[in-house]
Specification:
Elements lengths: L1 E5 L3 H13 L3 E5 L2 H11 L3 E5 L7 H9 L6 E5 L4 H10 L3 E4 L4 H17 L6 E4 L2 E4 L4 E4 L2 E3 L3 H11 L6 E2 H9 L7 H15 L9 E4 L3 E4 L2
Parallel strand pairs: 1-2, 1-3, 3-4, 4-5
Antiparallel strand pairs: 6-7, 7-8, 8-9, 10-12, 11-12
């Protein structure tokens, strides 16, 4: 499981990363709000651990930015004790709120619970079959003719979005927003690059794709 730790206190961020890695987590860190939004878009964490007191953006702005394009669980970690801060964070889309100081075992339990709730809410139709491609949405794996295909996190996010909408056109803007984030809506060259990479890995003939189809100027379809 991957956790994005967002905190501008280097000592605390380092201590959290050490403890989380010791418990088997893959840890990505960010020291400010903009870095957090970029890291979430590029690494696709399973849960975000977010401090509200950041140097550039308020943590509530980060929550709003994330909720504009992703349902990733967000656990707020904050020294703010006021009830209205907690209410605002939860109303904006945070899943849990932990106040400093905290017990590490309680924090671990809350992170696991947030991920578990998100997984339980995932669609029950977790396996999408497209020709000889088996796309396992629950395990985040894809196999071609029975052989596992290794994808980068971004390649997987692109494929997963199409697989959840198999047979339907997914507009370019939706792909950019959900895979890279709302700040990347004009970076259409990303789509061409990653679509080509996916075709090389998944299509029998990448130059004449049967499954990952482009509608010029509109978007992409994963054809069954």
């Amino acid at each position: 499981m991957r956790v994005l730790v967002v905190d501008d206190e280097p000592a605390l961020a380092r201590a959290l990363a050490i403890n989380l890695r010791a418990h088997g987590w893959d840890v990505v860190t960010a020291a400010d709000g903009r870095g957090a939004l970029d890291a979430a878009a590029m690494t696709h964490p399973d849960v975000v651990l977010l401090d509200l007191g950041l140097p550039d953006l308020d943590g509530t702005e980060v929550i709003s930015g994330l909720r504009g394009w992703t349902t990733v669980p967000i656990v707020v970690l904050s020294a703010r004790q006021h009830g209205e801060d907690k209410v605002e964070a939860l109303d904006l889309g945070a899943d849990d709120y932990v106040t400093k100081p905290f017990a590490m075992n309680e924090l671990m339990a809350r992170l696991r619970a947030a991920v578990r709730r998100a997984q339980e809410a995932a669609p029950t139709a977790a396996l999408v079959q497209v020709g000889d491609l088996a796309i396992d949405l629950a395990r985040k794996r894809v196999a071609k003719a029975g052989a596992d295909v290794r994808l980068t996190p971004t390649e997987w996010a692109f494929l997963e979005l199409l697989a959840r909408n198999v047979g339907r056109l997914v507009p370019r803007e939706q792909v950019l927003r959900e895979v890279w984030g709302p700040a990347y809506l004009h970076e259409t060259h990303y789509l061409r690059v990653y679509a080509a990479q996916l075709r090389r890995k998944l299509e029998d003939d990448p130059s004449a794709p049967r499954h990952l189809r482009t509608s010029a100027g509109l978007g992409y379809t994963l054809e069954p």
